[in-house]
Amino acid sequence: MNLTINVQVNGCKIEESIAPDLLLIDFLRAHGCLSVKRGCETSNCGLCTVFLNDTPVLSCSVLAARANGCRIITLEGLQEEAAELGGFIADQGAEQCGFCNPGMIMNTIALLRENPDPTEDEIREYLAGNLCRCSGYEGQLIGIKNLIQWRKERQTHA
Amino acid sequence: MLKSVNQPIRKKDAMALVTGKPVYMDDLGIFDHALIVKALRSPHAHAMIESIDTKVASRIPGIEAIFTYEDVPNERFTLAGQTYPELSPYDRLIMDRHIRCVGDPVALVAGTDEKAIDRALKAIKVKYEILPALLDFHDAIGSDILIHPEDNWKALDFIGADNKTNRCASETTSDGDVEAVLADCDIVIDHVYHTKANQQTMMETFRTGCYMDTYGRLNIVSSTQIVYHVRRIISHALGIPKSRIRVQKPRIGGGFGAKQSAVCEVYPAFVTYKTGKPCKMIYSRVESQIISSPRHEMEVHVRLGAMKNGRIRAMDIYTLSNTGAYGEHGPTTVGLSGHKSIPLYTTNLEAWRFAYDVVYTNVMSAGAYRGYGATQGIFAVESAVNELAARIGMDPTLIREMNMVREGQVMSAYYNEMNTSCALDRCMERAKEMIGWNEKPLRRVMPDGKIRSLGVAMAMQGSGISGVDVGSATIKIDDDGGYNLLIAAADMGTGCDTILAQIAAEVLECPVDQIAVHGADTDTSPYDSGSYASSTTYITGKATEIAAQKLKVQMTAEAAKMLSCQPEDLDFDGKCFTAADGQTLTIKDLATRSMCGFDGALETTISHSSPVSPPPYMVGIAEIELDPETGEVYPLDYVAVVDCGTPINPNLARTQTIGGLLQGIGMALYEEIQYSDKGRLYNNSFMQYKIPSRVDLGHIRVDFESSYEPSGPFGAKSIGEIVIDTPSPALAHAIYNATGLWFRELPITAEKIAMGLMEKEKNAQNAAQQLQ
Q1: Domains, in order of start, for chain A
Q2: Is B100 inside any structural domain?
Q3: B contacts of A130 (beta carbons < 8 Å)
Q4: Which residues of chain A neighbour B657 with C-beta distances below 8 Å?
Q5: Which of B144, B368, B529, B644 could be cross-linked to B260 through a Cys-Cys bond (beta carbons 3.0 to 4.6 Å apart)?
Q6: Total structural domains in chain B?
Q7: Residue where a domain terminates, one of B290, B307, B327
Q8: Does the model's ipTM exceed the 0.90 cut?
Q9: What is the pTM of this model?
Q10: DSSP annotation of B679
Q11: What is the pLDDT of residues B718-738, one digit of tens each?
């Protein structure tokens, strides 16, 4: 038995009849949000992070039905911010295979919206659930810190 | 002055990756309406299929086809991605009546609807004759249980392989009279070191999509490091000519060697071949954990002979390697456990011996994992050297400085190759400086009771496989005056597309942006054995360098013709040829003119192979904080200094190093493979198989001390694998310095440390009581 949901994905309204056990990750991928990746089946890796009403969630652990009436943002809807932060990661060579990047970048954007000037420990803590097997995390940390520094300097100049 | 090489430029694909563009196999759209393939997997470690009934399952709506062992060819093959003649035995069928490990495929179900497939998997009725399983690799040789009793098992080219004794490979090599030298030594360190079957856990699991193209050829799009080997493996598995198969790789979500075996390709290839319909198979994380291609479990027995002054004179190594149910990479990984550990101590070595057995058991097959046997051997040898230093009370860095291999030496245990480039001594000096070795004690108790300590290790690896690996590059000029670089090396996130473009740009004196890279595709890329064995920068990089030089010569000759002068009279600045008389010709004009009434092709293909495999070297020093109450180890600081020759892209080399070190730290401290007494793997998810997260370490700091390797492109060697080798011995050493306990089995978990300390305390109390 299907049910009908109304959601807003990256600003577009979608009304659709879905299976009650459909996961949000599969719903989003079926709607072209291919930045949303599956890396595990146990809510451990953080690759599928999206914003549900501005809060980062693991879309593999949320039923699409639960998103009824919600605003969902994926990296497809945050291209400018992704490129801004991603540029600093790329300047460290720390994007590597890239498969974990969308989830990690979504979560970093969430962190910096909550706390524009986090300490190193706060960054690590917030992103602890975003696994990466290539980079060893160090270059990503430096990239994020460089972005924060750059934003501060931009503010000072402005 | 280098302009492109040795520059920390962004990866060509970086911005696509960080903005989440759809570039991986399951994002491409070509398989959106393809059949989905899943496997029914054996719950038993060792069994014969007595009967299999798929009637009910195949009637479920949405099911397209179900295949079992009765449907597949009976020619055996290997999934290992290696050059001809493949050294791994031909011991597999696509599906076999004889089940050899938990997870072996019993049936393939293809359908349009995932839920229907899951129902069908449950509806297949299989009757197994359960056989006694061989789960302990010590029992393999001489066991009554034979993993591969079949008559059509075949080893192409390897000494010591014998399926009637469960031997996948066996060999002894030596130089000098090792027993005599050991007998003459003041001290012999004699221990067995045990490493486990770690998982690569690249974030993108194994996946492949297949379709028949307009010409009736089987097209494979796979997340693989080895397009050409996959083509051959599928040809063997299906019994069809290679010319009927095309293999391409899109962006890959990590590999680390896992994708140097065709772990999942043959199954969807078989389904598309049989049904004529497009299909895809995407492994779950559970499948990627339980039935894939992890590191070979090894037990390395080291006998190290030395004098009281620290001079290391003899090394005797015996390795027992567990290849599991199939022999993928079994005969080759084991060699590195001796040949890439013993030569580190060439300087005073008078004799060495290296023997090994590789055995079959009823656990999942092992495969290729970054380090490829060297990691296991280096844990053993470097630990033994640290034990020696502790025994004679010598600084473990000084004992290494006394014995380490030097440039110009012939390395008898490294296939008699000459050490043509080596800055290992400078790596040691710099690493000590970075960590403050001379200022810090090996052990400090902090005010809160935690213990801070240091540990050190060295490592070497190779750069490609000598005389075997082939790297190729095709470079052609495009009519805008840029270039296309075609390769079959696989960028799996490592950045080789960019690195090879940097090499080409340096030779052609143009910006890296002007080199468009394409690969890898067996229909369009020149033959390349693939990206593994630390070969891409060194082998394919050299091919790229030579190809670019040759193209430049061709272009100059054509320009000379067009300008009616001699090639040697032309000046080239990367954009324009200038003749002595001031006439000029831009490469854009050259390219455009060459498209009309021209009988040459301004393109060139070079294949390159190297008779040697110059080792990169490195030193790693760990500083840990150990909590004696819980046994928890926190790596505070890890410094690593690498000699990879010239780093073509220092940012990418550094990130390779940091990433490899953290993988090594996980291997050393908590990445664990555990089987039940029925052969079922417990650690089948990220819940049970813990890989390091951001909060599990302090910092990793990397520096380079570069030698110049004359046979490499711009002096480069390799870096991809060596970086995983030092953490296990360096951390074991730091843990010894903190606790006084040697841990010779990985991982060294908090539990093992806490239990070890409790036992140590109990023993001390008992001894004290006895004295009273």
Answers
A1: 3-76 (3.10.20.30), 78-157 (1.10.150.120)
A2: yes
A3: 694
A4: 136
A5: B368
A6: 4
A7: B290
A8: yes
A9: 0.97
A10: S
A11: 999 999 999 999 999 999 999
